[in-house]
Amino acid sequence: MMPSSELAAQVADEGEAIGEVVLEVTSPRLARDLYDTPAAVSVVDAPAIRQGQQRLQLDESLNTVPGLFFQNRYNFAQNLRLSTRGFGARAPFGIRGIRIQVDGIPYTLPDGQSQIDAIDLDSAQRIEVIRGPSSVQYGNAAGGVLDITTARGDDLPPGARLRLDGGSDDYRKAAIQGNGVRGDTSAIATLSWMNVNGHREQSEAEKGLFNARVSHELDSERELTATFNALHNPKAQDPGGLTLAQVEEDPNQATFMAKRLDSGQTVNQQTLGLQYQDAAVLPGEVTVNTFYSHRDFAQQLPFPGASRVAYDRHFYGISSQYQQGSELAGRPLTWVIGADVHRQSDDRRRYQVSPMGEITGQTQAETQNATNVAVFAQGDLALTDRLNFSLGTRWDHLRLSIDDHLALINDESGSRTYRELSSVAGVSYRVATRHQVYATIGTAFESPTFTEFANPSGTGGFNPDLEPQQALNREIGVRGLWGSSLTYDLALFSIRVDNEIVIDTQGANSFYRNAGETRRNGVELGLGWDISYAWRATTALTLADYELRDFTDEQGNEADGNDIPGLPGTLWVSELEWRGMAGRFAALEWQYVGSFFAENSNQTKVSDYWLLGARAGDSLRLGNQTLNLYAGVRNVLDEDYFSNVRINANANRPIEDRGYFEPGAGRTFYAGLEWVF
After folding, report:
1. Taking the model in full, what pTM does it have?
2. Lesser CB count within 10 Å: N end or C end of the chain?
3. Cα distance between residue 450 and residue 135, in whole Å
4. Molecular function terms in GO for this entry (predicted)?
5. What would the DSSP string read from start to end of 364-391?
6. 374 and 409 in contact (C-beta within 8 Å)?
7. How many angstroms from the chain centroid is the CA of residue 380?
8. What is the mean pLDDT of residues 183-187?
């Protein structure tokens, strides 16, 4: 998605001089104008995040970004699943292959896992999305970057806001926010609490979030910012995946074992970050980010066996970078260098659970450590006033180790070390101030996570044959703004992934292996048209071919040429928005998701579907206070569809007995009010 109508209008007022900054993006770490960036980057601003939205999941804000596919909106125990250009699709829970950070704090661990349950959309001010390889900037991620910035105390008028929401399936949410500025210090804090019973049995959730930022200007060129985020998730039930026969019987039911075992999770997490920016100590600008995060997690999976999991996680680190503008051979050169040191330490336990829900033994007690040390450099050279050349590289040293404290039969202790060099090269040509053509080629890697490292031989330690998957990404694109009303963003990509990591079920256990390669080719188109002062249309279309190559499926059969499961070849999301006077608005959104397969063997085809949604609102002025009213309807046509498909699940069972499917909610409503005072 290109800039919103407000940003487009701002751009239209700018002059025509080549080289003028139109819209700065910072997610590629080298801060620069969007129209000098040789990559598919989208920017989502505050109105798209907030206006009339529930602010529960990222798909509300990012649906109209081409190339992104979301599943699992309604299962808070598994959380939202996100994939871009095919990366992230294999994850049964959480997010893989995509780097996520909030206010400079990584939400992606050194082993490549990401959790997004602590992201506070009530505080979010801006989201930048890089579609494509991001290893040069951030390391262990082949799919792209989500860079989320929350509001500062001086981003909003001083005051307070109280929001109250309610809706279908006993949905309730309350949020309060306050912000202000005193001298050189600004502060903002947001507190929210959400309850929902869910449209399926065994899908109740409770969740509280607190997010705060305090910024202090030491002088005109130095600033210190502290961020604190806390998540309290005392209940998030998991109804489990259904077979097709169970869906036809009752799509809102939970599995028998999910109810008997009371499957679900509880989470408590606290994160503290500190950022220092200095533009005075050196000719350029120094930025240093430090952080510490603690996560206490417990989960009962919806089946008996070794299915009760708990861990206590400590995640901390420091990132630093230095950016400067200089010259090379008389031409402007902007460059950035930096280093990251991140460490993850998980004390993990796993317990054997009987079909009656009784704990019968402990199967895991170990400490998992992942340490990543990296250095990177990137530069942009202006060959002419219109033509820029970009080159970057990054070296990662990633060590993963396990210290087994149980060791009843086999000692699970061991370690693996990876040394990875990633690089990217690109060219960008400004046809005019607001029109750009670019091309880029880059490499990226994605390591196995600790979960994926389980040894299928049963001898303990790491799987000795599992290696990181390697991606080669090629991309060309154009973007721009016609006049003051039409933004366009077109990208063509071709990606080859070697040593693709896939699930390999053996009996009742799941393991992972490298299996051949995959090819991913596609086109992404985003358009935004300000039809008039009041009307705006937005559309995002993705057409892609995701193919398995040199590949065998979960039964050992030849799967060369099959589709990568879980990825629709067609995605189309459009929105028509009307904005009236004094804060009135209405929006209609329609979404088409093409068919895809549920497993590597391509035996189960998941049907395509259409979804229609609407939201509207109004504002009332009460002296110097404002009352915002809003309401929305999801799945207006009450379409039957699957909000999530558990890819390659239960591969040891016959096809008809595999619990792939999580039915989506039917027609649901929500409404709320916001008092600004």
Report:
1. 0.92
2. C
3. 20
4. siderophore uptake transmembrane transporter activity
5. EEEEEEEEEEEEEEEEEEESSSSEEEEE
6. no
7. 27
8. 97
Contact (CB, 8 A) for 619 and 626 = yes
How many angstroms separate the Cα of 92 from the Cα of each of 88, 452, 510, 552, 644? 9, 11, 11, 20, 10
| Structure tokens given for 151 | 């509001």
Q: Would you mind telling me the total number of residues written for the chain in this entry?
A: 677
Per-residue pLDDT at 413: 81
Give residues with Cβ within 8 angstroms of 507, minimum separation 6: 652
Q: Report the alpha-carbon distance of residue 149 to residue 104 in Å, rounded.
A: 8
Q: Tell me if 180 sits within 8 A of 158, measured CB to CB.
A: yes
β pairing state of 486-498 and 501-506: unpaired
Q: What is the pLDDT of residues 33-47, one digit of tens each?
A: 888 899 999 999 999
Give the single-character DSSP code of 254.
P
Ordered domains of the chain (ranges, CATH): 20-676 (2.40.170.20)
SS (H, E, C) 588-639: EEEEEECCEECCCCCCCEECCEEEEEEEEEEEEEECCEEEEEEEEEECCCCC
CB-count burial class (<10 Å; 0-12, 13-18, 19+) for 37: buried
pLDDT at 461: 59
Please enumerate in sequence order all residues whose Cβ is within 8 A of that of 646, keeping only pairs 6 or more positions apart, or say none: 92, 241, 598, 659, 660, 661, 662
Which residues lie closer than 8 Å to 347 by C-beta, 6 or more apart?
A: 311, 312, 313, 366, 367
Q: Which of 631, 622, 625 is nearest to 585 (CA)?
A: 631
- By the 8 A CB rule, do 237 and 202 touch? yes
Q: How far apart are CA 629 and CA 52, in angstroms?
A: 8
How many Cβ atoms from other residues are within 10 Å of residue 280's Cβ?
Answer: 12
Contact at 8 Å (CB) between 73 and 80? yes
Q: How far apart are CA 338 and CA 660, in angstroms?
A: 43
Strands 171-182 and 113-114: unpaired
List the one residue out of 26, 173, 113 whose CA is nearest residue 342: 113
Residue 674 tokens read as 């916001």
d(CA 432, CA 627): 43
Examine the pLDDT at 235 and tell me if it is beyond 90.
yes
Report the side by side order of strands in the sheet with 144-150: 40-45, 124-131, 144-150, 98-102, 105-106
Burial of 447 (0-12, 13-18, 19+ CB in 10 A): buried
- C-alpha triplet 589, 8, 477: angle, nearest 5°: 80
Strand pairing category for 205-219 and 185-196: antiparallel
pLDDT at 9: 38
Rounded CA-CA distance 610/608 in Å is: 7
Q: If we measure between CA atoms, which residue out of 203, 205, 301 comes closest to residue 254?
A: 203
Dist CA 106 CA 643 (whole Å): 27
Q: Cβ distance 117 to 87 under 8 Å?
A: no
DSSP one-letter code for 464 = T
Contact partners, residue 608, CB within 8 Å, separation at least 6 = 568, 570, 592, 593, 594, 595
As a whole number of angstroms, the distance between CA 156 and CA 199 comes to 36
Both tokens of 118, joined, read 């602590």
Please check the confidence at residue 20 and state whether its pLDDT lies above 60: no
Structure tokens belonging to residue 487: 């933004």
Spatial contact of 424 and 444, defined as CB atoms under 8 Å apart = no
- Cα–Cα distance measured from residue 64 to residue 431, given in angstroms and rounded to the nearest whole number: 26
CA distance 109 to 116: 12
CA 500/CA 469 separation, integer angstroms: 5
Taking Cα atoms as reference points, which of 598, 595, 548, 591 lies closest to residue 569?
595
- 245 by DSSP, 3-state: which? helix
| pLDDT: which is higher, 147 or 26 | 147
